[in-house]
Specification:
With 375 residues, the chain is an alpha/beta fold. The chain folds into 2 domains: 264 residues, Alpha-Beta Barrel (TIM Barrel), CATH 3.20.20.100; 91 residues, no CATH class. The protein is built from 16 helices and 10 strands. β1 and β2 form a beta hairpin. α12 packs antiparallel against α14 and α15 runs antiparallel to α16.
Length: 375
């Protein structure tokens, strides 16, 4: 029996979001991919999402210059009260935030947003501008007082910014990436960000559960991994009816068990014989080297044979977070001897079949700004 047939009749489980008092379906409909499809298809997706018990929909003003909001607004006509609705703003000043908020409310055809997020909060400079007098936080708090917004959130592509944001902003939730690829080189998300969010009562919603589509061959495993990792809600960009049915079926199965997680990390084709599982067989300095390599290109560029479609996907997604310069600076600051890495790697036997010596040479080339293509 396929997953869609197995799912029929089930309803998505719900979860309390932090200390907000709001209950969300554990699967959310992300708005980014609504830009890629017609308003008619978006309406169909919303119909299906509501039918399977979904109640959380998130989008952003920047998605298609408002196209995602417009399409979702039309699809939700007459049933706005059935969903918890979220949008996002990149504004840094109170005036700009107000303009974006009013545009979002009009496009979504609603009088309020349940949650409004500071979108792509990636630098301390941006955070300082937001929290300064006349900054976007002032505008957000005014909107909160007026009932135009009922909760505040943030998203970022920089782990340290979540820690600063949780400490300095009155957040109800964070939207943070979480998947079994990124966890292998960014363990601080689960080790530092998640515990701090829970301590402060901030809800955790997870974007990129399929690593921007890279984990499409392991979609069910990826979604169940996210729920097991500690996220309350998996926000998934779905642009076809079968995507919703498949994702809902996975979420209804519940979080992956420990043995299933071990199997995912062992067998997932996307990890293959290149992505470091951080298993502890190699010494910490080598594992740290491979984590920094992940900053460079998410360990996607491995110079191994791939079919054209998979290769094109890797090239498109590898630099998505733009963390390469950070990785290179951290590597330079360590001032480590490359020969020691190579010699150590030559003695390693990886339980996942990775050629550790080869991977070490590639990682060193990436971090030193050399071209691995010549290796």
């Amino acid at each position: 029996m396929d997953r869609i047939s197995e799912f029929q009749g089930q309803q998505l489980p719900r979860v309390a979001l932090g200390k907000t008092g709001v209950e969300l379906s554990r699967l959310a409909l992300g708005g980014f991919h609504q830009v890629e499809i017609s308003a008619e298809v978006v309406a169909e997706l919303v119909d299906i999402f509501l039918r399977v018990g979904g109640n959380y929909i998130e989008t952003a003003r920047s998605y298609g210059g408002g196209a995602s909001e417009e399409k979702l607004g039309r699809a939700l006509a007459g049933r706005r009260d059935r969903v918890v609705l979220c949008s996002k703003t990149g504004a840094a000043t109170a005036d700009d935030l107000r303009r974006e908020l009013e545009a979002s409310l009009e496009a979504l055809d609603t009088d309020y947003l349940d949650f409004y997020l500071f979108h792509g909060l990636n630098t301390m400079e941006k955070l300082e501008r937001i929290t300064a007098p006349g900054g976007a936080l002032d505008g957000m708090l005014k909107a909160l007082d007026e009932g135009l917004v009922r909760g505040i959130g943030m998203s970022s592509h920089r782990v340290p910014m979540y820690i600063e944001g949780i400490r300095r902003l009155p957040l109800s939730l964070i939207l943070i990436w979480c998947n079994f690829l990124e966890d292998l080189y960014l363990p601080e998300i689960r080790q530092k960000v998640f515990p701090l969010a829970r301590e402060r009562g901030v809800g955790i919603t997870a974007m990129k559960p399929l690593a921007d589509g890279f984990l499409y061959r392991s979609a069910e495993s990826a979604l169940r991994y996210v729920l097991a990792a500690g996220a309350e809600v998996a926000v998934c960009g779905m642009n076809a009816p079968e995507h919703i049915h498949q994702a809902a079926a996975a979420v209804c199965r519940g979080p992956a068990e420990t043995a299933e997680i071990e199997a995912i990390l062992r067998d997932a084709p996307e990890l293959g014989r290149y992505v470091c599982r951080q298993c502890g067989v190699c010494p910490e300095q080598l594992m740290e080297l491979f984590r920094l390599e992940g900053y460079c290109d998410r360990q996607m560029i491995d110079y191994l044979p791939h079919n054209p479609a998979d290769y094109a996907l890797r090239v498109r997604l590898a630099g998505w977070f733009g963390l390469g310069d950070i990785a290179k600076e951290r590597f330079r600051a360590k001032d480590r001897d490359a020969r020691t890495f190579v010699e150590t790697a030559g003695r390693m036997k990886c339980p996942y079949g990775i050629d550790v010596a080869r991977k070490t040479r590639l990682a060193l080339a990436k971090l030193r700004g050399e071209s691995p293509a010549f290796l």
